[in-house]
Amino acid sequence: MGDRSEPVTAAERLGPALLGRLPPEVRKPTYDRAALRPGIAHIGVGAFHRCHQAEYTDDLLAKDFDRWGLVGINVRPPRLAETLGRQDGLYTRLIRQNDEVEARVIGSIIRIVDSQDSAAPALHVLSSPDIEMVTMTVTEKGYCHIPSSGALDLDHPDIVHDLANPQAPRSVPGILARALELRMTSHGRPVTLLSCDNIPANGIILGNVVRTFAERRGNGLLDWIGANVAFPSAMVDRIAPATTEADVDAVEERFGYRDGAVVVGECFRQWVIEDRFAGRVPRWNRVGATLVDDLTPFEHLKMRVLNGAQTTLAYLGVLGGFEHTFEAVADQLLATFVRRMLTEETLPTLMSVPGISPAAYVEQSLARLTNTAIRHRNHQIATDGSQKIVQRLLNPIRDRLAKGEGIALLSVPVAGWMAYLVKASARFGRAWQASDPFAERIAAIAGRIGADSEALADAILAIDAIFDPSLAANTTFRAHVTTSLDGLLSNDPMDSVRQVCAGPTDAWLKRPARSA
Ligand code: CS2
Fold first, then answer.
1. In this structure, are 256 and 186 located in the same domain?
2. If you measure from the C-alpha of residue 133 to the centroid of ligand 1, how many angstroms do you get, rounded to a whole number?
3. 195 lines ligand 1 (CB under 6 A)
4. Average pLDDT for residues 344-366, to the nearest whole number?
5. What is the pTM for the complete model shown?
6. What is the span of the domain harbouring residue 278?
7. Of 292, 316, 333, which one is at a domain's C-terminal end?
8. What separation in angstroms does the CA of 428 have from each of 70, 186, 444, 459?
9. Contact 329, 370 (CB under 8 A)
């Protein structure tokens, strides 16, 4: 990184005035930013959006200039005004592969809107006739759906609020339904709402939650949506961990300017979008995105393999004392476990994917996770596991059980998620702070039950918002989860991983459970 030549305070901040004076190794927008007009709105301007959809849009503007400027909206913290806002939407996107760094300033975000205190600023943008495409990365829990069924969670406090106050919504589904209502009653222009979150059939789930609101309005909104709004599903991929102070300092040390909105990602990127739109659409397919009729095989591949591996390494990694993914996958035991799980159990559940060899995809995914410059914390990936394990682990488990196939390996990270939340509870000494919508409920279960693994597993499996009752009742699944949880809560959690790796998995199931 070289020595810091000037104190931090002396460095100029990134902004339009600096664009002409950037160091030559930093790529910058080649198009006329001043000519851009708002066309796309994005909700949830985090590291992932800045590393993915905003970069694709920047590529498109460079290649095939059109007016598609992005308006970035946050309806939850952090506020954007102090970072991206001060920089006129400009930020540095670093691609890192071990010791190599590639830097580029992205120019596609032309306005930012902080709408954390009230939905009004977001509604103003989303209902504008200029906006024809709304993309979003609002995290899995932002959809306020029930993970096991995909339906809107009518007991969610924000949903209860929004159904009672539809004109001043708080939740993403409530905000979108209100924006559509405003569009219907003003200019009536069609729009595509494109989810870019890692939930299965994300377009269907988004459509479900928004339509549930519309139906209750009873003012023709549901029919208007049917005729004027598209909810395509999409699979998005690029590993882009939360930015750290060290990343911001690294840009300053290396390139000499201050950028409060730096993002760091890996080289790999992928975007597969269901070809079903309303209104005008940015031609992202001209810059690497793929349009398909059926997204399902792509999303299963990505969520079950890449995300399944990340989630497995995150829980087993934390339990084994590893901070980041790349450290967990460098451990021989965990690497062996995750490769066996993916090849023996996950791969056979995948549909054939046009143009991709699933076996090669597994190897490529594992290789991506070894990148030492991507410092993805296991605790970050472990966050909100209740919203992630259905698509990453439970769906492949369910598919295998339906065919009478073994699930000994895939059950281990499910128990890993349980052990992670149990160990975060007061009763188990608050080993770490866990963030998950079900953390409190599981802490209460742990407080009540203590160290009886079988009773713990029973009580957690009874949470039907996560575990479909027919899966929870399956005796094979229950037995594997209980045995794994018992091992993972022991003083040597890695020993149970070692055992399952050591031999034929059904022999492992016959091991007597450690007494609670
Ligand atoms: C990660 C994802 O935090 C997580 O849940 O598994 O953010 C993952 O890095 C992306 O889906 C990669 O495309």
1. yes
2. 24
3. no
4. 95
5. 0.94
6. 16-292
7. 292
8. 46, 56, 11, 16
9. yes
